[in-house]
Amino acid sequence: MDGRKVPKKQRAVRLFGAGDFDHDGKDEDVLAWGPDPLFALHGEKPQRFWVTDGTRDKVVFTSAPYEKGAS
Question: pLDDT tens, 47-67?
Fold first, then answer.
């Protein structure tokens, strides 16, 4: 995260959504995650997202580039 590795015990995850985003007939889970246990309750900005099909990771990204200059 932001150029540094976050130890597993410091990662907090919450379900953000689900859907068949790649149109393969199976849903993918979108998880929002952060480096602090309080994130699971309160969240933070920018949000970091992790997309998985339950067997393997599809993509991990942050919303930071999309929030710059937003009002």
Answer: 788 899 888 888 888 887 776
